[in-house]
Design brief:
Layout (H helix, E strand, L loop, with lengths): L2 E3 L2 E3 L3 E3 L5 H12 L14 H8 L6 H4 E6 L2 E10 L5 E9 L8 H15 L4 E7 L3 H9 L3 E2 L4 E6 L14 E5 L5 H11 L7 H9 L3 E6 L2 E9 L4 E7 L8 H16 L5 E6 L3 H9 L3 E12 L1
Parallel strand pairs: 6-7, 13-14
Antiparallel strand pairs: 1-2, 3-4, 4-5, 5-6, 7-15, 8-15, 9-14, 9-15, 10-11, 11-12, 12-13
Length: about 300
């Protein structure tokens, strides 16, 4: 008999996420991270701190939008979506299924229930990603109507200890944390550098107010930007205006912004993703000590 979950009918073994599920979900996340054939773009939790930090900052409670599959009194599957206010899209989490319970369509049930939750919250687009070697995950998404979104992305991580910052200064260029009155400059840079970007203007206003954005300026003109969200330890965008690319400005900005970030968050590992065929960005990251971690392909589905 199906059970009702926030107004959606799902298999009786599925239920809403509870905080006490975190340990078992973390085990599923760690397993997927360690096996390229199981990797997904969300979650990327390797520690309880990463899980708790990311979920603490969601606009819509994870208890409303995340799901677990419970069999024999233990969590054997996980999925759901993150809903962010002002965004047209939702980010897909999972589905992850314990290997001993595969072949029972639990992944399909989790995915269908996740999409139903996105519809219930009025979301028109769901974006997810899977590892480049996760054949079953790719087939699951494609069978459900997802299509590829852009090229594959290479995911990197870096700690303060491993960072190799740019030595010296760049004459005439200043790097600073952006303020609320930098909104127009930040939005202009974002749309110029990421014409297919999905972040609404209001999200930039919130990031600026919280001190999550850094600008590189010359003669008072903003030429590059970087934003880092400490809740999920992630740098979402590194953008440089076209005329300044391949001249070292991006590397200078990354180096100075990270040094500033780590004065407040010294123990954090920062992750980011760039297009896997973007050789200048890949070289920039490797020169500064970023370690390659995953290769992910993004998918999207209109609801």
């Amino acid at each position: 008999m199906p059970a009702s979950l926030h107004g959606c009918f799902v298999a009786s073994s599925l239920r809403s996420f509870r905080r006490e599920d975190s340990g078992e979900i973390l085990d599923l996340s760690r397993r997927a991270l360690n096996r390229p054939q199981e990797q997904v773009g969300n979650p990327l939790w390797a520690s309880r701190d990463e899980l708790d930090s990311e979920l603490s900052d969601w606009d819509v409670s994870p208890e409303e939008t995340l799901l677990v599959d419970e069999e024999d009194d233990r969590v054997v599957g996980f999925g759901g979506v993150e809903i962010s206010r002002g965004f047209e899209h939702a980010d897909l989490f999972g589905p992850l299924v314990d290997p001993t319970y595969r072949g029972q369509k639990l992944g399909t049930e989790l995915l269908e229930a996740s999409l139903a939750l996105a519809r219930r919250h009025g979301v028109g687009l769901v974006i997810g990603s899977v590892g480049a070697r996760n054949v079953s995950g790719r087939m699951l998404l494609e069978h459900s109507g997802f299509t590829t979104r852009g090229p594959a992305r290479a995911v990197f991580r870096l700690t303060a200890t491993d960072h190799r910052p740019v030595v010296g200064e760049r004459p005439g260029v200043a790097v600073r944390r952006a303020q609320a009155d930098d909104l127009d400059a930040a939005v202009r840079l974002y749309h110029e550098c990421f014409p297919r970007g999905v972040f609404p203007d209001d999200s930039w206003r919130a990031a600026l107010e919280r001190g999550f954005v850094w600008l590189a300026e010359e003669d008072g003109q903003a030429l590059a930007f970087l934003d880092i969200d400490p809740s999920d330890h992630w740098a979402y965008h590194i953008g440089v205006v076209e005329q300044e690319r391949a001249r070292g400005l991006g590397g200078f900005l990354v180096s100075r912004a990270l040094a500033d970030y780590w004065t407040v968050h010294p123990e954090e590992t920062v992750g980011l993703a760039v297009e896997a065929d973007n050789l200048p960005s890949l070289r920039l990251l490797r020169r500064q000590g970023f370690a390659p971690w995953l290769v992910l392909q993004s998918y999207e589905r209109r609801l």
